[in-house]
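During the second year of the project, the team shifted from modelling isolated chains to modelling whole assemblies. The rationale, set out in the original proposal, was that interfaces cannot be judged from single-chain predictions alone. As a representative example for this report, we include one of the complexes processed in the last quarter. Its constituent sequences, exactly as entered into the pipeline, are reproduced here:
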Amino acid sequence: MTTRVMLVDDRRDRARWLKAALDESGYEVVKTVHDMDDLYQLVLDLEPDVVIIEATSGKRDTLEHLGHQHRRYPKPVVMLSEHDDPELLNTAMQAGISAYVVQGLSPQGVRSIINMAITQFNEYQELQHKLARAETRLEDQKLVERAKCMLMEKHQLSEQDAYHLLRKAAMDHSTRITDIARRLLHGKGTG
Amino acid sequence: MTNKSLGDPYNTESDLRHGAGCGCSSCSESAEHADAQEAGSHKQQRMDQESIMDRAIESAVVRALFNGHDASRRHFMKLIGGGTFAAALASVFPMDAAKALLKDNLGSPEKTDLKVGFVPITCATPIIMAHPMGFYERHGLNVEVIKTAGWAVARDMSLNREYDASHMLTPMPLAMSMGVGSSNMPFIMPAVENINGQAITLHNRHKDKRDPKDWKGFRFAVPFDYSMHNFLLRYYVAEHGLDPDRDIQIRVLPPPEMVANLRAGNVDGYLAPDPFNQRAVWDDVGFIHLLTKELWDGHPCCAFATSRAFAQEYPNSFGALFKAIVEATHYASAQENRVEISEAIAPRNYLNQPVPVIQQVLTGRYADGLGNVKEDPQRIDFDPFPWHSMAVWILTQMKRWGYIDGDVDYKGIAERVYLATECGDLMRDLGHEAPEVTYKSHMIMGKEFDPEQPEEYVNSFEIRRS
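Output from the structure prediction step:
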């Protein structure tokens, strides 16, 4: 499957050079976005796999917003820059930018950077998901602990008895123990 | 000299019980050790009065935490490591906030060549005009003001410290300090740039649709997710029964591209910073539906922000810059200066706009695009004081619309990021009046916001994501 690239660049000479390099590397440039094109709608309609944009472009605000709002986004974003500035790359990567291209790269260079961007982006997404799952587990644990403490205090139970009570309630209602804990803490049902 | 009682409170070797000249056996022994350490590093020799003060505050806090029991403190530090503890403690006690960032007596700036970013909108007036009108120079600074195309760029240039300080939107330093929407780095907001200064502009074809209830399906633009523009638009339509996430579409556009997008019909309207509301009228593309001042008179808009690290590393440069900004902000707030300022900031290297457009914004005598000439001198105003209660309001809206979730330490974050106390001191130093308190209630569309009850406030809204 060809990788579909959207190129956002107000500098037409550079955009042309980059498009040629991308074509040569086997990418499909679905659109080159200039000045006042409706970037927001174009991203939604064309669903590119990668977006390439100038590091200092104000349109990055639009792309970040798309990243916040839509489940299918963010997409890996590759930044264009005149300068090879490792500091800027570092900061940008933390904001979700995956790599960036410096003018003058060979087509091979462009290809490896875009491939790297996609890989890094996917790894980063995976990491984010893992983190989110870990956070949920931690929250669940906290809920159960708090519910247990509440039962122990209210009914003078041992920790083990409180836990059994919760587990039994969960089994009786065929639901998860965290749901029982949540209901208990929000005052619905007494256990 | 060894400042023994001012030893590093996170160090297992230091002893916080004994004074510098203490002659007890344990002291003479560890004093030698300390001397050896010092020879290796010049750091402690350069410990000036201010760092002694900082250290004293930290030591006092750490001592209090261990009830003055120094042996258990040292044991504990050994177990978990001083650095870990310092970080953990900072999360419950804003150690940095206890140390004043603004020094009482400013020395000459450590760094005189500074880079300050701005996005070309009238909100940045104080930051911009301070350049051509000599406010930076007066404080011994050679500031380069750098036109920046958008907020993500301003943020990243600030995060990587390419910029020493920057024009931002008032919610941005809060979001950045929490690591929401970017990497996490402690930012501070010494001063608000402008209050009011935004408007809702609609396309000319909607002249008959003045009731928000008729806006279902409209596409609106705001400049950034973490902006007062976004939060005020959401608040406004929600008060009229529209769900901003379902009944309308809100997209982000960099301000300089807003008029063109309105003309092209890509959006039906926007809640934007000026001059782009007035510019839409000037270009006969849209009309001003209302000024945000009509929703919340005196609401914060843009900010002057920098990293906490900059303020700590260059306290004198930071102080001088802070002073220049507060002075420029006061100068801009005087009505009689607004015509002159309009001419100073209109040129190509700053806002790049026709002078009459800027003048209509800054003087408040403006055409609304509906055939009226309106008069509202407070259309945009300049007041540097960063109320903590404003930060708390912003955080309530971030919670309300799902930008943050879970328990929010409203006041803790507000006080770490907004330097209200320091700004107040500086305003008084410069001979201006400043509020004695940093929290007050605010009136937004006739509804009172009490900063003491943020969570209740969030839950009081029917339309919300939290």
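Chain B touches chain A at residues 148-153, 155-156, 159-160, 162, 181-183, 223-225, 251-257, 260-261, 264, 266 (CB under 8 Å). The longest strand of chain B covers residues 113-118.
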